[in-house]
Amino acid sequence: MAEATAVGAAPAPVRLGLRENWRQFALLLLVNAFVGGMVGLERTVVPLIGSEEFRLASTTVIASFIASFGISKAITNLVSGQLADGWGRKRTLVLGWVIGLPVPFLIIWAPTWGWIIAANVLLGISQGLTWSMAVIMKIDLVGPRSRGLAVGLNECAGYLMVGITAFLTGWIAAASGMLRPDPFYLGIGYAVLGLGLSTLVVRDTGEHVRLEAAGHAKAEPIRFGEAFVLTSFRDRNLFAACQAGLVNNLNDGMSWAIFPLFLAARGLGVEPIGMLKAVYPGVWGVLQVVTGPLSDRIGRKGLIVAGMWLQAAALLMVPLLDGFGWWLVASILLGLGTAMVYPTLLAAISDVAHPTWRARSLSIYRFWRDLGYAAGALIAGIVGDAFGLPWAIGGVGVITFLSGVVVAVVMRERRGPTNTVKGGNGSPHSGPPECSRPRP
Q1: Half-sphere exposure (CA, 13 Å, Cβ side) for 43?
Q2: Domain carrying residue 240
């Protein structure tokens, strides 16, 4: 919705572009920073709460809080696009913050591990709504020419705050000598500020969607089931992106659950663990400002493949090499590889999806991507219990490499501006002339 120029004046015309909408774009960056901070609360401290306060011996049980987060977030992602289209972006964003508000209190007061799992169910639902709306609304604002830049800036804000908060929680826990409650006071502040800004200042972007759609070939309505099949399996580019997104978050879920336990077993204290846990999302967050717009210029496929393979190499370094210095290098490389992949996959989905069903397609991609949290935590937990934590880390590294191979074989690069149309066989698709027929 356009901003009013003055009291009693007609609203300014709706326009697409980052420069034209920079105030709302910057506000949404700030909101997504608070969204990322809510996840960063748990990166360092919560696995250690499971092992040290609740005396959980099973890696799989400790990882269960990430599985609950991943499953609830994935399912919420699946419906967030429908909510965005039918109920409005802003309302869905505010609802996400309302659901996330109790999370830090539940963790602070948790008398049993079940409370931690319940908090992460709420956190997953909240993230599925808030982060989805933040990225969708930015894509709405900028239009088709700057999708990679918009997604890169969005993910930079979110994951940079993940890294900063992961460091701060480790530092606060080390300074206070307690894993609870002090580190989680940050989360209360994030939730209150995020909810307040989303309610009072953020504006809906429905008019921007309608403006962009008017410049495209008319598309017939697409049902959710058709969008799910098309995004998940039928279009080769969308399929390649979905499986890469799932594996990307599979290795992130593994690192979330396993790295603090692995590093603690190697003798590191909570503060250096917090530093290593901050470097990975910090590098990931900052470099997306470069990799997002870079994908607009050089294409999506090469960045995705190289990023997946770089992540795989970094993961294999962790169990094979010993010492803080090597683990720091591995964390940097893991962040770099993820930065190459994360915004590029979102932009690749947006390249294909028509504006009228883009929110649904993005929500379906995010469903598969965030199932990776649960898959990574559970796979790593089971393998870690059976064979040891180094095997869990190395095994996920191999899976990540194979996912890059799938992208290299299946995805076809798109060149030139996208032109979303309705195919002659009734299949919605987009692309330049050489991509004028949808492919299985």
Answers
A1: 31
A2: 22-435
Decide: residue 323, CB within 10 A, 0-12 exposed, 13-18 middle, 19+ buried.
exposed
Establish if 137 belongs to a structural domain: yes
How many C-beta atoms lie closer than 10 Å to residue 333's C-beta? 18
β partners of residue 422: 428
Count structural domains, the chain.
1
Q: 10-residue block means of pLDDT along the chain (440 residues)?
A: 43 76 91 94 86 84 85 88 83 96 95 93 94 87 78 84 89 90 94 96 83 66 82 91 94 86 87 85 84 85 95 95 93 94 87 77 88 88 90 94 96 57 36 33
At residue 289, φ and ψ (nearest 5 deg) are -65, -30
298 Cβ contact list (under 8 Å, min separation 6): none
Q: Is 97 helix (H, G, I), strand (E, B) or coil?
A: helix
Count of other CB atoms within 10 angstroms of residue 427? 17
Residue 119, domain CATH: 1.20.1250.20
Q: What's the token pair of residue 203?
A: 């504006």
3-state DSSP assignment of residue 355? coil
